[in-house]
Structures are given as structure tokens and as C-alpha cells.
Amino acid sequence: MIKHILFDVDGTLLNSSAAFCGSLEDALARNNIPHGDISIYFTLPLKRFISDYAITDPNFLPDWNADYVSRIAAAPLFDGVKEMLDRFVSRDLQMGVVTSRLHDIALVGLAENGLGDAFGDIIAADDVTRPKPDAEPINLYLSRHSAQPDEVIYLGDALTDRQCAIAAGVRFFAPAWAPLPSELAPDAISQRALENLI
């Protein structure tokens, strides 16, 4: 029986790809760093971006973080997400967040959309040693809530989300209401189908 449902934030609950990519492009421009398509980093921890671009400026991450926090505050929820979450609350499901973003960014994005109190736990990249695709973030949730893997569903829009869920032994779905990579098409589920499953 499903007792817990976990969500990624960016690209799953929040339609935030434009905010994320815009903030990275502006950060690179401020630092005169040429770049190609950076959309692939939307689903990856920012540490990967910093490593790939060999960024050594200690101010880059704090400056980007401040800019993205201001942008994420204006990023909208995907259609129907708020109503779906309200129905899950009415069913006494425990809901949590597992994200590759930093804790403060996740909190801002959720709070600005009226979801500040919707989730019993938020596990972000800075809460773990090994973020997604490692199982550690979901395993931390399982440990904190004495939950068994077969009681949990995880919803995310990235391959790293699926890898994290599989490694932790929980069931994975991808949000059909959001843009998804082709690799996740077989995992896509609509809001109605998700609600009927639980």
C-alpha cells in the first residue's frame, strides 16, 4: 500500500526550466564564459555544471544562487499540480520532496506557490553527501520516516530521478504534464492515473 509520495521540484512541480537556463546564461555572460546548449543541466546537480565549465570563481555559485532564487519565486506550478496535491493531502498521504537543488531554492519555489507547508520533508542536494542519481536522498527519507520502499512512489522528470528511485527500490513515475526526455516516456503518468493508482 502506498503511504508516501515524493516529488522532484524543478520540471515536476514547477515549470522552471526557463528560469534556470536564463539564470545560468546570464551568469556565464557576466563572467565572459562562452557556452552552448545548457538545457541539459536543468536536470543535473549544479556541481556538474561547475565542473564541466571548470568554474573556479568562489563568487559564481553564491551570485547564481541569489539570481535563481529571485527567478524561481516567479516560476509557476504546472497546470493541475496544486489541486492534485490538495487531493493527496485529503487522503492523508505523506508527501515529501527530493531535489537536486539547494534547500533554500526549493523552499522559495514551493513557498511562492503556496506549497510551503504541503510537504512533511524536503531533502535537497545540500542535505546529502551523494545526491541523485545515488539512492542516498530517498534512503534518507525512508530512514527519517520509517518507510519501506514498497510504500513509496517517486515522481521526477529526469533520468537521474529514475536512477535514484531504482537504486532505493521505490516505484518511479515521470510527470506526463511536463516536458520529458524520450528515455522517460515509458514512465510517464497523468495526474488522473497517478491519483487512481494511490
Folded structure, characterized:
This protein is α/β, with parallel strands linked by helices and 198 residues long. It folds into two domains: 4-15 and 76-197, Rossmann fold, CATH 3.40.50; 17-72. Helix content is 40%, strand content 12%. The protein is built from eight helices and six strands, in the order βααααβαβαβαββα. The protein has helices spanning 17-30, 46-52, 60-72, 81-90, 103-111, 136-144, 159-168, 191-197, and strands at residues 4-7, 94-98, 121-123, 152-155, 171-175, 188-189. Strands 3-2-1-4-5-6 form a six-stranded parallel beta sheet, with helices on both faces. α1 runs antiparallel to α3 and α3 packs parallel to α5 (103-111). It is globular. The termini are close together.
Task: Detail the topology: elements first, then pairings.
Layout: E1 4-7, H1 17-30, H2 46-52, H3 60-72, H4 81-90, E2 94-98, H5 103-111, E3 121-123, H6 136-144, E4 152-155, H7 159-168, E5 171-175, E6 188-189, H8 191-197
Parallel strand pairs: 1-2, 1-4, 2-3, 4-5, 5-6
Helix pairs in contact: 1-3, 3-5
For the biggest β-sheet, the strand order reads 3-2-1-4-5-6
How many distinct folded domains? 2
- Please state the second-level CATH architecture of the largest domain: 3-Layer(aba) Sandwich
Helix count from the secondary structure assignment:
8
How would the global form be characterised? globular
H/E topology pattern = EHHHHEHEHEHEEH
- Derived structural class: alpha/beta
What is the CA-based Rg, rounded?
16 Å
Low-confidence stretches: none
CATH class of the largest domain: Alpha Beta
CATH domain topology of the largest domain: Rossmann fold
Strand content: 5-15%
